[in-house]
Specification:
single chain, about 300 residues, eight-stranded mixed sheet
């Protein structure tokens, strides 16, 4: 990936909207990287928390914008759908020509294309940034898949460099491309989790051998072709609860798996594994299964998603 040396090392002052689990950690990582952050959230306590970390608190979107110098940049990290739509619409009325809006949430890529066109009418640039890293991103960095206008990407590159590990961010295409790539990423995640879950369920069911699942997860990470970070998390899960007896096998879906399957159908792409992994999540809400417990436990560890007890 080509980087612009004149911009990469520049530290920025930018706005950040949405201070949930990921948002707070992203703000903290940006502050550690030397950037100045003006932070806003509908939760006053979340704003105070960001302030204690060194961010400049803002009591509203208007005040956030007022505390930034032009040209301004605002990163939003709020739930997809209506919260994102309303936030971007509000910022569209508050920002001006040459400002930049960045959506780092899990938005539907077609919505991002539409939002980019609406903001373009006001001379405001829009970047859709698929963000992966979950609750571990503060320490390890975030994988960033960036779509939108390439000049806007270059202006924000120092921010992406701070948030990501080495080689962990890339400009992937025009508006919508970032969220499209993240959508497919999440579809693959669904399938990987399901494959691991079914394998561990087979071993749990084979009582003849009294298999130690934590040891096997560790073993598979030593040169095996299926080694991965997810297996590291699985080892931790089974060390804490060998048979997952304290976890209900209830697995939510973020919506991106559904979008991935719908897109596969629209493009006539056979995606049976991803499709079945989505359907297994639906099944998990109907009755107990060990594989669903595995998925629930791993999602809790890598993304902080709550467990059903």
């Amino acid at each position: 990936m080509r980087r612009c040396p004149s911009l990469v090392e520049i530290k920025m002052k930018m706005g950040f909207v949405g201070l949930g689990k990921m948002g707070q950690n992203m703000v903290e990582r940006l502050l550690q990287g030397g950037h100045k952050i003006v932070a806003f959230d509908v939760s006053e306590e979340a704003v105070k928390t960001a302030g204690r970390k060194g961010a400049i608190p803002a009591e509203s979107l208007q005040k956030l914008v007022n505390k930034l110098e032009t040209p301004r940049a605002v990163w939003i990290m709020v739930p997809s759908g209506e919260p994102t739509e309303n936030t971007i619409k509000s910022l569209g009325t508050l920002l001006a020509e040459d400002d930049i809006v960045i959506d780092g949430g899990n938005s539907f890529y077609k919505d991002s294309i539409k939002r980019a066109k609406e903001l373009e009418k006001r001379g405001i640039s829009f970047l859709d940034v698929g963000t992966s890293g979950g609750i571990w991103g503060l320490k390890l960095g975030y994988c960033l898949m960036i779509g939108g206008e390439e000049p806007a990407f270059k202006k924000m590159e120092s921010v992406f460099k701070t948030l990501a590990p080495k080689d962990g961010y890339a400009y992937v295409g025009n508006s919508g491309a970032g969220h499209f790539v993240k959508m497919v990423h999440n579809g693959i995640e669904y399938a990987l989790l399901q494959a691991y879950a079914e394998g561990f369920e087979m071993m749990e069911a084979k009582k003849d051998f009294s298999l130690h699942l934590a040891r096997i997860a560790h073993l598979w990470n030593q040169g095996s072709v299926i080694r991965s970070w997810l297996l590291e998390l699985a080892e931790d899960v089974f060390k804490k609860d060998a048979h997952l007896s304290s976890i209900r096998g209830y697995v939510e879906d973020s919506g991106e798996g559904r979008w991935t399957v719908a897109e596969a159908i629209a493009e006539h792409v056979p995606a049976p594994v991803i499709t079945m992994s989505l359907l297994e999540r639906f099944r998990s809400r109907q009755r107990e299964s060990f594989s669903a417990k595995v998925v629930a436990a791993l999602r809790n560890l890598f993304g902080g998603h709550p467990l059903k007890k």
